[in-house]
Every structure is written in structure tokens, then in C-alpha cells.
Amino acid sequence: MEGQPLSIIEAMATGNAVVSTRVGGVVDIIEDEVNGYLVEPSNVSQLAEAIETLITDKAALDRIKENNVSHSIKYGDELFNDNIKSLFESLLST
């Protein structure tokens, strides 16, 4: 879970579509056109195209939203375990 933005996992868990750049741990969470859209950093035309697709293609939006909810479930236990581990590590280091 290191380097994976919690905001993306939270958005997925609530059934929101995600458009993000191909950076860091995001590429481990989002599979392009399956559970979101990945665009190259600073590529405004790709970003606009992904957003336009979500606005105009209801079937794609619905598919991505459904995939996000089921995909985000796997992060629940893993995220909880990482948070508990971090808590114990911080307590032990003081």
C-alpha cells in the first residue's frame, strides 16, 4: 500500500469513476479503461478525452463504477492492516 493514494481507493469504494495520471502507486490500483482512466502527466488532451468519455458514455461510466466497488473491497483489510502496523511502529519508536 506504500505510495498508493487513499483518496483514489476511497473514491473507488464509493462507486466514483477515477481519472488520474500514470504516477507512483496509482498504476497499481487503476487498470486503464477497466476501473478508471490513466493519462500521461501534463497531457491535457488525454485528460479531457477521459473526462469526456465519462460524461458521454453512460455504459463505460456504469461499468467503471461497478468495477470500482468490487475492486476496492480488496483494499479494505490490507489498508486496515497497514494502518495498525503503522500505529504500532510509531508507538514502539517513542
How many strand elements?
2
Poorly predicted segments = none
Termini distance?
24 Å
Overall helicity: 55-70%
Order of strands in the sheet with most strands: 1-2
CATH class: Alpha Beta
- Rounded to an integer in angstroms, the radius of gyration calculated over CA atoms is 15 Å
- The number of helices is 4
Structural class: mainly alpha
Which percent band covers the strand fraction?
A: 5-15%
Helix and strand pattern: HEHEHH
The largest β sheet comes out as: 2 strands, parallel
CATH superfamily: Glycogen Phosphorylase B
CATH architecture: 3-Layer(aba) Sandwich
User: Do you know the CATH topology?
Assistant: Rossmann fold
How many structural units, i.e. domains? 1
C-alpha geometry: elongated
- What is the averaged pLDDT score? 89
Structure description:
With 94 residues, the protein is mainly α. It has a single domain, classed as Rossmann fold (3-Layer(aba) Sandwich), CATH 3.40.50.2000. The protein has helices spanning 6-13, 26-29, 44-56, 58-92; strands at 19-21, 37-39. It has a two-stranded parallel sheet. Strand 1 (19-21), helix 2 (26-29) and strand 2 (37-39) form a beta-alpha-beta unit. Helix 1 crosses helix 4. The longest helix is centred in the last third of the chain and has 35 residues, at 58-92. The protein is elongated, with a radius of gyration of 15 Å. The model has no long low-confidence stretch (mean pLDDT 89).
Brief characterization of the structure:
64% of the residues lie in helices and 6% in strands. The protein has 94 residues and is mostly helical. Strand 1, helix 2 and strand 2 form a beta-alpha-beta unit.
